[in-house]
Amino acid sequence: MELKNGHIIIPVSLVEQVLQGEEQINLVYYPERSQLLFAGKSKTFFEKLHATKWMRLKSKNAQGDKALFVREILLDYDLDDSDRPLTYSVKNTSIIAVEL
Most CB atoms within 10 A, among 28, 30, 33, 85? Predict the structure, then answer.
């Protein structure tokens, strides 16, 4: 996973593993942890546990990578917006946690 031009690029392997068939996601950013959490819109428990907002996943390329626009979050929280690899983990509940 990487940050590129204000977008998180989600590799096709992760899309197939966790976000298969999802066109929208719910996300929330926790500044005290510098962590962005997101899950497919179909994971309704995630929306109930966190104050989320939804966003549409965009197709990045023919291979199946997806892009998630996060420039607004980067600007709002004065985060590093340089292109770079991102550290992430996938929870048992199919929630993806990204370190920003």
Answer: 28
Question: Which residue range is the domain that position 83 belongs to?
Answer: 2-99
Enter the tokens of residue 42: 């179909």
Q: What is the pTM of this model?
A: 0.89
**What is the C-alpha separation between 21 and 11, in angstroms, rounded?**
14
Residues 6+ apart with CB under 8 A from 11: 1, 65
Structure confidence by residue, pLDDT tens digits, 52-98: 899 999 999 999 999 999 999 999 999 999 999 999 999 988 999 99
Tally the domains of the chain.
Answer: 1
Residue 55 is encoded by which pair of tokens?
């966003």
